[in-house]
């Protein structure tokens, strides 16, 4: 009898932790594990703003999936674009654009999230995100290119528009992105003698009335104070009304000449979840505290794509889409999968949040570990210590620590690699959000697969 097939979709924190646990705890031949991911690395997403600002190299936050000594997982290079829970088939688009159907006995949906967008004219064509490694590298190149072009321009209007930068989203990603990139341009402009540093202006806007409300009023105001001391203009209760290639219109009526719009206004569950036709909570797949999808045999979900009940908070709360929860969910989910295989009871997921860290670059940070409010160097030590310890391999830890030390000693560099310099990239180009199938299209593929076999 063939061993059961376990298919894990996504190589984020939840998916990788699940696979690692399965590899360690399953007996040889007890199950066949397959991982579907377009890239052969796990991305340490919280450090992307530091990649965009050049503090870290892209390779240092991309942890190879093939370093495991117990490696026995088959990796399919592609993305899942549809799932049929009744037929137990996952439809995959490989990186060659070939579409294949992958049957499974158990499936783990850890497809993560994508940048949440709204129906704002020009947004998808003119904004850039901060959700993938390619986006971070592109944004860095783009920002440095604006300095190069402004320095070379004889047109005052063009120069002004190239030196205005807008970041939308007052959460962790947006705040860290604005803070880190503002440091980059501040340090870089010293090498552009024809540019007036006073013309460089960063704007951070958010529709919410507070900056990072999860931190509490004190730390939120402390972070706001740091940003404003750096001359970052923070506008709360404001969003984007229209985005053009050379200007941005705010909802308060302001029109800003601007060629750099970075959109970090939250995340939404992967569109893969919509292909199942199952119940969702705010777009995330509704699962039990054991990660199982009710009414579907062998379907589990965790991480940003799943609405996992937060039993530590109670009152119907669901776990926030953070790396902290995803890593721990992946491990418990793997244990529950093994329990299912062996006919044992499943365990509930319970985890009390350990706190929050926000790295604002340089010596600036705000952190709230275990409810203790910190700012400045102590907060920076906690933030970087947490991120460093969370990296999965010693190689990644060594690279990140070396990058931090080199940056502290030698400062920033301002090399533009020319990444997609001729063709402006859109949000869709990086996140492939238009690649997913409808539930009806998924069924057509699975029916064709049944006939084929």
Q: Strands, helices and their partners?
A:
Layout: E1 5-9, H1 13-25, E2 32-37, E3 41-43, H2 48-52, E4 62-64, E5 74-84, E6 89-94, E7 99-103, E8 106-109, E9 113-115, H3 123-126, E10 127-128, H4 133-152, H5 156-162, E11 164-168, H6 172-188, E12 201-206, H7 217-229, E13 232-236, E14 240-243, E15 247-250, E16 255-257, E17 260-263, E18 267-269, E19 280-281, E20 284-286, E21 299-301, E22 306-307, H8 323-341, E23 355-359, E24 365-369, E25 374-375, H9 376-390, H10 394-410, H11 427-431, H12 439-452
Parallel strand pairs: 1-2, 1-8, 2-5, 8-21, 10-17, 11-12, 11-17, 12-13, 20-22
Antiparallel strand pairs: 3-4, 5-6, 6-7, 9-18, 14-15, 15-16, 19-20, 23-24, 24-25
Keywords: FAD, Flavoprotein, NAD, Oxidoreductase
GO molecular function: oxidoreductase activity
Domain FAD/NAD(P)-binding: 5-330
Q: How would you describe this protein?
A:
Keywords: FAD, Flavoprotein, NAD, Oxidoreductase. Helices cover 33% and strands 23% of the residues. The protein contains twelve helices and 25 strands. The protein has helices spanning 13-25, 48-52, 123-126, 133-152, 156-162, 172-188, 217-229, 323-341, 376-390, 394-410, 427-431, 439-452; strands at 5-9, 32-37, 41-43, 62-64, 74-84, 89-94, 99-103, 106-109, 113-115, 127-128, 164-168, 201-206, 232-236, 240-243, 247-250, 255-257, 260-263, 267-269, 280-281, 284-286, 299-301, 306-307, 355-359, 365-369, 374-375. A seven-stranded mixed sheet has the order 7-6-5-2-1-8-21. 45% of the residues are buried.
């Amino acid at each position: 009898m063939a061993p059961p097939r376990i298919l894990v979709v996504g190589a984020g924190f939840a998916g990788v932790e699940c696979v690692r646990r399965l590899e360690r705890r399953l007996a040889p031949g007890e199950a066949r594990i397959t991982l579907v991911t377009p890239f052969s690395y796990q991305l340490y997403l919280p450090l992307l703003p530091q990649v965009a600002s050049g503090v870290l190299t892209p390779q240092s936050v991309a942890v190879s999936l093939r370093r495991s000594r117990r490696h026995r997982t088959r990796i399919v290079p592609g993305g899942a674009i549809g799932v049929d829970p009744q037929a137990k088939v996952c439809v995959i688009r490989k990186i060659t654009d070939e579409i294949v159907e992958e049957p499974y006995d158990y499936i783990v949906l850890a497809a993560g999230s994508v940048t949440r967008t709204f129906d704002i004219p020009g947004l998808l064509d003119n904004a850039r995100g901060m959700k993938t490694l390619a986006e971070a590298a592109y944004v860095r190149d783009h920002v440095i290119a604006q300095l190069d072009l402004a320095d070379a321009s004889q047109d005052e209007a063009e120069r002004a528009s190239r030196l205005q930068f807008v970041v939308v989203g007052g959460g962790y990603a947006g705040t860290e992105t604005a803070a880190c990139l503002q440091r980059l341009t501040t340090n870089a402009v010293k090498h552009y003698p024809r540019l007036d540093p006073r013309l460089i202006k960063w704007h951070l806007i958010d529709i919410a009335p507070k900056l990072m409300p999860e931190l509490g009023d004190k730390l939120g105001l402390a972070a706001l104070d740091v940003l404003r001391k750096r001359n970052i203009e923070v506008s709360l209760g404001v969003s984007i009304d229209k985005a053009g290639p050379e200007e941005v219109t705010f909802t308060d009526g302001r029109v800003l000449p601007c060629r750099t719009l970075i959109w970090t206004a939250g995340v939404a569950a992967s569109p893969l979840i919509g292909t199942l036709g199952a119940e969702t909570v705010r777009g995330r797949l509704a699962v039990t505290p054991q990660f199982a999808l009710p009414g579907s045999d062998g379907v589990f979900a965790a991480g940003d794509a799943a609405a996992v009940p937060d039993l530590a908070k109670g009152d119907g709360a669901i776990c926030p889409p953070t790396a902290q929860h995803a890593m721990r969910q992946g491990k418990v989910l793997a244990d529950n999968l093994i329990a299912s295989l062996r006919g044992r009871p499943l365990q509930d997921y319970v985890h009390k949040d350990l706190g929050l860290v926000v790295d604002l670059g340089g010596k600036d940070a705000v952190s709230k570990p275990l409810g203790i409010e910190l700012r400045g160097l102590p907060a920076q030590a906690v933030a970087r210590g947490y991120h460093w310890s969370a990296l999965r391999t010693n190689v990644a830890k060594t690279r990140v620590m070396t990058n931090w030390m080199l940056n502290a000693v030698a400062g920033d560099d301002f090399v533009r690699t020319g990444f997609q310099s001729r063709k402006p990239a859109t949000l869709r180009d990086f996140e492939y959000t238009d690649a997913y199938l409808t539930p009806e299209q998924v069924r057509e593929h699975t029916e064709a697969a049944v006939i084929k076999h």
